[in-house]
# Entry
Amino acid sequence: MISKVHENVLEAVSGIADGSTVMIGGFGRAGQPVELIDALLAGSATALTVVSNNAGNGDAGLAALVGSGRVAKIVCSFPRQVDSHVFDAVYRAGRIELELVPQGNLAERIRAAGAGIGAFYTPTGFGTLVAEGKETRSIDGRDYVLEYPLKADVALISALRGDRWGNLVYRGTSRNFGPIMAAAAATTIAQVDEVVELGSLDPEAVVTPGLFVDRVVAVGERPWLRDGVFVGAEAAS
Amino acid sequence: MSAGLDRAALAARIAQDIAEGSVVNLGIGAPTLIADALPAGLEIILHTENGMLGMGPRPAAGRIDPDLLNAGKQPVTELPGASYFHHADSFGMMRGGHLDICVLGAFQVSEHGDLANWHTGAPDAIPAVGGAMDLAIGAKHVWVMTDLLTRDGASKLVTECTYPLTGVRCVSRVYTDRAVFDVTAGGLVVTELFGDTTLDDLRELAGLELRDASGRHENEEMRS
# Structure
């Protein structure tokens, strides 16, 4: 019997080595695997390279990881936000390396890694600072920049429901980077609100097939999501 | 008469140019005001690059869903017909030319349609680009919504951008508080003047060659 289900988040994130590249899903707080990040923080892994769209919001989750000093480098598209004070301080202190990647290039580089693509030409960023030093090419009269895949040792993602094979469904805009990060990492760890019986997810509606997922852990209903009504204070900012 | 349009009026003016059936991405900041100005009853599909088509307005108080955000990470709602997709698909929609219109803010736009809107280039600035570069080169029509002048009185329409570029020759139209400009192979063409702004005012403020297609002379009596 296949079972990728882990009993708790600490067990689910075990074995992440120092120096690992860790993809972290989420766009702002939507889809951010906060419970898995907390579990990573409870461990000792350090000198990490983090790949995520943002560099943390507020003080929890990714922001706490960045603030812990255990992230040596972050690859992201939009670190500076109204509530990115943790990253701002660490960056200005020169304690983190930043690789800034346009959001679509970030997504496509991650997708390319999972899909076995060696490199790709994209029009995004041509003629700008982010293309400096990169190979370019004109194809059918349009200018492109060569970009390489972005893979990871580990992906931490958040989904709504999963089964013991690792099949996942998401909710709303929290899907964002989950499906492509799941495919781009050697080990993909998914937190879900609920683990459901094998066969109870509609196969037509599965978004991430289980072969992309290695570990699944249930974190329970998120307290700030109840009957579709916003009840917590945390996500308000 | 006034010098021009305020933000809300400019948003309403831009909304008039968005046809039913269009798929539109409204950039973070002032362009989001356009959503509230779209004519009721027309089916215009809003795309948000974090992974949704058919985005609706802000939720009522107490109905905020943290799993349902727009690109500015503000809470939004889902309209009938909405769909969700992952980031690679979302940016494929842009890059692949499937969006009809995007409206972006700007620091500078050159007379050739180069756009600068992500980075001031200041040494102490923390750069953040997000989806701006993808939007700039992706949509069929890239419109800019901005004040003509900066707070310091400098023109945002320039011969060549001095700020780091977001995209090269990508902007097709610029809606400002003073006038609407089309970017053409022959330079900037003024298609509409707001308030009591004249072509000569614009030439002086922007320091650019401008072609007049505003029809101001023909319409002068009607408008006054």
